[in-house]
Amino acid sequence: MKKIKICFIGTNPNFDGGITLLQKNLIDYIKYMKIPYEITWIYMGKNNARYSKKEVKYIELKTPKILFLEDILFNRSVLKFLKENDFDVINSHAIWGYWMKNYKKKLNQKIVHTYHGTAYYFLKNSLKRFGILKKIMLSPTLWWGYFLEKPPMRKADNIICVSEKVKKHLEMLYGIKRKIEILRTGVNLRNFKPFDKEKAKKQLNLDAKNSYGLYIGGGGFWTKGLDRVINLSEKIYEKNKNYKLIIIGSDYNKVKHLLNKKFIIFLYKIPRDKIHLYYSASDVFFCLSRYEGGAPTLVVSEAMASGCLLVCSKDSEQEIIEDKKNCLVVKDFDKNDAKKIMKVLKDKKEKEKIIKNSIKTVKKFSLEKWGEKYSKILK
């Protein structure tokens, strides 16, 4: 059978988060199902480099690191590369679809673009943290996001959105009525599943007598709500001195001003094959973001599948969750929200009911089901 040549355009494959993990999961599914693809992965980096690893060709395109310009420059390099190389399918992601603006599609070629959020609404939300003067100064960045993400809506053969919210935002922004696939991010239920909490703590050298909250996030700490997680955790710690908060993935230099708390355990980077143990060892997983594209995000899916009690902010808009049914939804991050969490943690019957419903919910979004739908679109 002739191999289908596919090109993925996205983030650095060495980064364990977000879009990178989605692309890796999709490639794993393609390999697992023995689908005859020849895969190339393009990303921006410090050098021009080409190498192969585990049957995937990687192309690093040297891109000057200039705020707002780097993505435009990267898209230009992508455009040049795609003109010089032939692929049956091109699957670009997020803001790296601007290359389509000046691209002439080749015969029998298919272009699929996946929106993981909208830069316009992400940036609009980010402006909330600033005063009026800074908001005025930074407001032009909204239009940068608007124009950068527009071409795929007009030129891609297929559009995938990771949530209903992202689809709605795109329709509001561009007013284009076209078919858009809603495909929520899949989770590997073979790797992420309930595991004995005490054994997980022992493997990680965590104190068995402590209860643990967990935050995982490598993006902007304000948008991801790390400050909210710490504030809420502090209220819990005031009532329970055996409570600890594990923070994984944040840039220490950007968050160190938040970390001077006795109850915090900061871990910059954990090997991907160990992450499931942290979910299992933790009693609560926090997603208190101020904006998310995915609904659910990958870490939320993994936490649900692992049997964590999930606590989400109302404005993270995870869509598949329902307060006190398969999750706890909070909005004030104060002592009352802390009491709400602690009450469920103490009520074994209530906690088990919520976790059981959470696992039942996330099973609808298995990697296999998601991968099958995604690969059909690519075909």
Properties at a glance:
about 375 residues; alpha/beta; six-stranded parallel β-sheet; 14 helices; Rossmann fold; globular; eight-stranded mixed β-sheet
Topology:
Elements lengths: L3 E6 L8 H15 L4 E9 L3 E5 L2 E7 L6 H16 L4 E5 L16 E6 L3 H8 L5 H7 L2 H15 L2 E4 L2 H11 L6 E2 L14 H7 L7 E6 L9 H14 L3 E6 L3 H4 L8 E4 L7 H7 L2 E4 L10 H9 L2 E5 L14 E3 L4 H12 L1 H15 L4 H12 L1
Parallel strand pairs: 1-2, 1-5, 2-4, 5-6, 6-7, 7-8, 9-10, 9-12, 10-11, 12-13, 13-14
Antiparallel strand pairs: 3-4
Helix pairs in contact: 1-14, 3-5, 7-10, 8-12, 11-13
How does this model look, in words?
With 379 residues, this protein is α/β, with parallel strands linked by helices. It folds into 2 domains: 4-183, Glycogen Phosphorylase B (Rossmann fold); 197-364, Rossmann fold (3-Layer(aba) Sandwich), CATH 3.40.50. Helices cover 40% and strands 19% of the residues. It contains 14 helices and 14 strands. The strands form 2 sheets. It has an 8-stranded mixed sheet, with helices on both faces. Strands 11-10-9-12-13-14 form a 6-stranded parallel sheet, sandwiched between helices. Helix 9 (252-255) links the parallel strand 10 and strand 11 (264-267). Helix 1 crosses helix 14 and helix 3 (119-126) packs antiparallel against helix 5 (141-155). The longest helix has 16 residues, at 69-84. It is globular. It starts with a strand and ends with a helix. The mean pLDDT is 94.
